[in-house]
Amino acid sequence: MMILSILATVVLLGALFYHRVSLFISSLILLAWTAALGVAGLWSAWVLVPLAIILVPFNFAPMRKSMISAPVFRGFRKVMPPMSRTEKEAIDAGTTWWEGDLFQGKPDWKKLHNYPQPRLTAEEQAFLDGPVEEACRMANDFQITHELADLPPELWAYLKEHRFFAMIIKKSTAGWSSRLMPSLACCKNSPA
Prior knowledge:
The chain is mostly helical. The chain folds into two domains: 2-79, no CATH class; 123-185, no CATH class. The protein is 64% helix and 0% strand. It contains eleven helices and no strands. It has helices at 2-18, 23-39, 48-59, 61-79, 85-92, 99-103, 109-114, 122-138, 141-148, 153-161, 181-185. The chain is elongated. It starts with a helix and ends in a 7-residue tail after the last helix.
């Protein structure tokens, strides 16, 4: 009977974890379950005391921070390498978009569909319809990949003349700050 009660407790814990029940409610359910098993005579009622001693620090944030989190973080700091400049910049870059929900395993599809579709400005659309189309017409994939292993000189000159390389530079510093580069990469004879 003892093995059955332990198995039932493990199943209960699994159900609480699976349904992401809050820590406080989970603690109350676990204490009530343990008390019920004690009343039924399957466990000693004294099991409640160490269980309560374990659960109390977890349920009160100041106590949890001082007794559990702080020592654990100190231990991690000793064994983890220092954060690189790139990692620091990535963390400081800001918040996540919808992919944050996706990686947490709970994507909110309505949130994704409510995001407005990005639109090209008139200037970007004109650039796409004009110089980008012309660059795609000038590109010969076979010549670029098999004969020259490079872009032809006239295409390089065209790309420089129409400031294709200024696209990733912000407008405030005389660049295009454009989202058009993926369009160039997708053209049939891709020079990108």
